[in-house]
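Let's practice the habit of predicting before peeking. Look at the sequence and jot down your guess about where helices and strands might fall. Then scroll down.
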Amino acid sequence: MRPTNPRGGHLGNYEGALRNWVNLQNEGYDMFCMVADWHALTTLDDTESLAQNTIEITKDYVAAGIDPSKSAIFVQSHVKEHAELHVLFSMVTPLGWLERTPTYKEKKDEIEGVEREPYGLLGYPVLQTADILLYRPYGVPVGRDQAPHLEIGNDIGLRFNRLFNTDVFETYKYLIPEDETRAKLPGLDMRKMSKSYDNCIFLSETEDETAAKVKSAYTTPSKIKKTDPGIPEGCAVCQYLKIYSPDWQTLWDEDRKGERGCMQNKTACIEAINEYFRPIRERRNALTNDDVQDILKEGAKKAREVAGETMDKVRSAMGLLRD
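Done guessing? Here is the structure:
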């Protein structure tokens, strides 16, 4: 995850990624969980809070259930091999591949001013590929909608193997959750939950802050009175109830029949979200910045061991002179 907000990650990040990471860890996978601070620089104008943002994302990782004794939690910029492999991959990646990347096309159109987009935006997939292939993974946990963005990584790895007659990199799999319903959690306004839309509920928020946001959430526009029929599929509050309330089916049925009002739904939603995330928030509040620094230091050490092995193989394949 990119550390782009002082509040850390939001419920969409948890449902779309963190929950899956924790499940994979608990299934016995060796996980490498990175805070992508270099990637944040492609869109972050003010870097004054970048270091603290990085700490906040790390707190989210640990509070959600990523266990530092089982999984490596580290910062991208703390493992310099990411930069080295990025440079070497940039020597073998065709420019046309990058210009056709959907994310690049979207982001460059958002850039205003006379200056063109930075190389960091164009080269984002190359650095992302280095982030992945540095650990020669079996798979990458990703949502089905994000899988196409990672296809270029496998292409770069295969091209590298072909150019240098090696088998350093194997094709990685997409570890997509069987049930992706939760990963499609909408924002408070029913758009995609995104920090840029300011429609998020953050893991770091208090119960009162969560309550205030839910009270402002989007509900069925045509439901003016309690007795008006609701459309829970198009209501942000009802979407949250479906995920966090065990009684959601009954609540949805009553909403459709006009037996429940929007404020009743919001009250139930507030209680359900706060109850679900209470243990996660308690673990998060117990973490100090010093705790996080220790976790990241140990995680970077684990990551460098594997990254170093990969770079030895890469340098040898490319015929670089050892120092």
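How did you do? The first strand starts at residue 32 and ends at 35.
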